[in-house]
Amino acid sequence: MSEEKKTDQAAKQTKDAAYGRISLHENGIIYVAMKDFTPLNLENAKQLVADVQSIDSSGQALLLIESGQDIEATFEAQRYLGTVGGLSHLALVVHNKMQSQIATFFLSMMRAFRSPYEMKVFYQTEHAEIWLLNTKRPSTSGA
């Protein structure tokens, strides 16, 4: 594949949105870089999910969300993100203790709502990637 086609394909898999930037990387993980100081409301949460599903419609997407600075998510957005289908695993990457505490509370709440996918909180992107790649969906071959 030519470099031009690779660049074009990557551009089709990257989108800027009100909540931040979403992109599919070669490792199969969908990355979301949240915009700093941007509230995550229900409308943005629904757009995020629609964007994920436009990139990976298998229902088994591996999603890594990199938290921005001062991100507030409404209860409605949290509940929607925690109960909607289309994901297999969600890694939340946080940058400080406050974000970690909020994310951990969010995960506890999602377990109570019986979230259909597994979620974990990380301080380092590399650790989140390792976890996601080690949980990749099984191959569909008969072997």
Structure summary:
With 143 residues, this protein is an alpha/beta fold. It has a single domain, classed as 2-Layer Sandwich (Transcription Regulator spoIIAA). Helices cover 41% and strands 23% of the residues.
Strand order of the largest sheet: 1-2-3-4-5-6
Q: Round the Cα radius of gyration to an integer and report it.
A: 15 Å
Mean pLDDT: 82
Reported by name, the CATH topology is Transcription Regulator spoIIAA
The proportion of residues in beta strands is: 15-25%
Written account of the structure:
The protein is α/β, with parallel strands linked by helices. It is built from five helices and six strands; from the N terminus they run αβββαβαβαβα. α2 runs parallel beside α3 (75-83) and α3 (75-83) crosses α4. The longest helix is centred in the last third of the chain and has 16 residues, at 97-112. The model is unreliable at 1-11 and 139-143 (pLDDT under 50).
Topology (elements, then pairings):
Blueprint: H1 3-12, E1 14-17, E2 20-24, E3 29-34, H2 42-55, E4 61-66, H3 75-83, E5 87-93, H4 97-112, E6 118-122, H5 125-134
Parallel strand pairs: 3-4, 4-5, 5-6
Antiparallel strand pairs: 1-2, 2-3
Task: Give me some keywords for this one.
Transcription Regulator spoIIAA, disordered C terminus, globular, 143 residues, alpha/beta, 6-stranded mixed sheet
